[in-house]
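[step 3/7] inverse_fold.run input=structure_tokens len=450
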């Protein structure tokens, strides 16, 4: 029989989940939207919050309805799609992109400003990244301790520091909200919508599902129904925290121009804003915040990817996968932040539309009777344009692609996949009805009903 958890424990679990989502992307991208959007900031943030926050809760609910793991969710399309999508997802959220990016960002903001001798930057980066990833391994070693380590210790510390920084920005603003820059003069909502991709939180929701379920199982919660309820409660706590954070970060960015001017990235923007608000002490404050949010992100991602690969390759243990992926992360980290960030956009523009389409299909499942053909046709429609967007972002024949496929509505704004996805959905529904495919319905606990 499952234990009944007190609210304090549920809150700790929610804070744990919040700390897993709260990484470098959450703290860096919203301030840049605020600074660039200027007086249009709240329109831009409306779009940003949809993809950067709102879809996170929907992803959590979709995951519980779809079977609890991303493989079972994506398996509604096909086993091959589930395998390819899951592997790309976990590798991107783990050793190929997120862990190296997070480690590099922490170094650039929390460590590099304090380094006196800039001639040995590569050595300093290697030394720091090795120590940081060793700490990540240590904190990831035992997932049963996640709630105590992340939810009860680390999250409150960086939350207090962030609250102090944010409160100061409201009490004594750095300046007035500036004028919108070129990219935010028109299509502001769509621009904010696509910028929300960069938080990677919708993808992270799929990745963290397995490790979350494993963690709460150690607390005596085992039934899928109770796991789903707890997942959603923790998700609500996470969403409230993320909305407050993103809006506050956007405010800091929007009011920063008079004090620090325009910056090239969110890390530099936050560091300079912290100094403008608190002087030299601000550098240590934001450095501590970035360090703690970075370590929680790394721990969550490393544990999740190791847990996933242990499931698909059980002959290699969870702890061995931790070592393997940590070593790979360390190597990629030391190629430098610019190289790592270059990989980001194409990956996101490919995976994000597919993830959003999966979420939408799970919620609409019973409306189209869960027909497999509908899933497959929709993902083909979405994936076709997502691949084109990824190629353009990688600077592979962008002009040719725009010329040939520019007739697709919303294509130039990076959201043409919505149109082709709807077309795929309708075609799949027509084919499924013609074939008289059997219904595969979902009840509220995420179980199949024939």
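[step 3/7] decode complete -> sequence:
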């Amino acid at each position: 029989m499952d234990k009944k958890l007190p609210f304090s424990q549920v809150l700790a679990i929610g804070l744990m989940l919040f700390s897993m989502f709260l990484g470098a992307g959450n703290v860096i991208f919203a301030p840049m939207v605020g600074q660039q959007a200027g007086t249009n900031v709240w329109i831009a943030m409306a779009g940003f919050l949809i993809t950067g926050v709102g879809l996170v809760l929907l992803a959590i609910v979709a995951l519980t309805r779809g079977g609890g793991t991303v493989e079972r969710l994506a398996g509604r399309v096909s086993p091959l799609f589930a395998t390819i999508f899951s592997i790309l997802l976990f590798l991107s959220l783990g050793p190929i992109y997120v862990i190296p990016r997070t480690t590099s960002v922490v170094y650039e903001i929390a460590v590099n400003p304090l380094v006196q001798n800039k001639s040995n930057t590569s050595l300093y980066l290697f030394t720091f990244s090795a120590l940081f990833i060793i700490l990540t391994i240590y904190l990831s070693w035992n997932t049963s301790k996640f709630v105590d380590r992340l939810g009860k210790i680390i999250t409150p510390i960086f939350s207090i520091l962030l609250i102090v920084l944010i409160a100061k920005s409201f009490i004594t603003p750095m300046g007035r909200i500036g004028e919108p820059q070129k990219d935010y003069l028109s299509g502001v909502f769509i621009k904010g919508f696509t910028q929300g991709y960069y938080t990677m939180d919708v993808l992270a929701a799929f990745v963290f599902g397995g490790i979350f379920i494993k963690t709460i199982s150690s607390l005596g919660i085992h039934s899928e129904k109770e796991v789903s309820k707890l997942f959603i409660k923790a998700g609500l706590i996470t969403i409230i925290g993320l909305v407050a954070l993103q809006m506050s970060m956007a405010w800091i960015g929007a009011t920063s121009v008079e004090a620090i001017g325009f910056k090239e990235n969110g890390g530099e923007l936050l560091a300079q804003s912290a100094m403008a608000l608190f002087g030299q002490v601000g550098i240590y404050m934001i450095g501590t915040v970035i360090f703690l949010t970075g370590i929680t992100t790394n721990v969550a991602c490393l544990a999740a990817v190791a847990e996933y690969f242990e499931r698909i390759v059980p002959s290699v243990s969870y702890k061995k996968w931790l070592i393997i992926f940590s070593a790979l992360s360390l190597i990629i980290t030391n190629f430098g932040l610019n190289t790592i960030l270059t990989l980001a956009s194409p990956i996101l523009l490919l995976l994000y539309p597919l993830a959003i389409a999966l979420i939408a299909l799970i919620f609409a499942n019973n409306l189209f009777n869960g027909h497999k053909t509908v899933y497959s046709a929709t993902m083909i429609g979405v994936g076709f344009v997502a691949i084109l967007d990824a190629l353009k972002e990688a600077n592979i024949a962008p002009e040719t692609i725009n010329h040939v496929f520019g007739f697709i509505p919303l294509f130039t704004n990076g959201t043409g996949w919505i149109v082709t996805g709807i077309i795929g959905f309708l075609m799949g529904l027509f084919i499924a009805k013609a074939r008289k495919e059997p219904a595969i319905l979902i009840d509220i606990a995420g179980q199949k009903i024939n």
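[step 4/7] annotate
Strands lie at 441-442, 448-449.
The chain has 20 helices and two strands.
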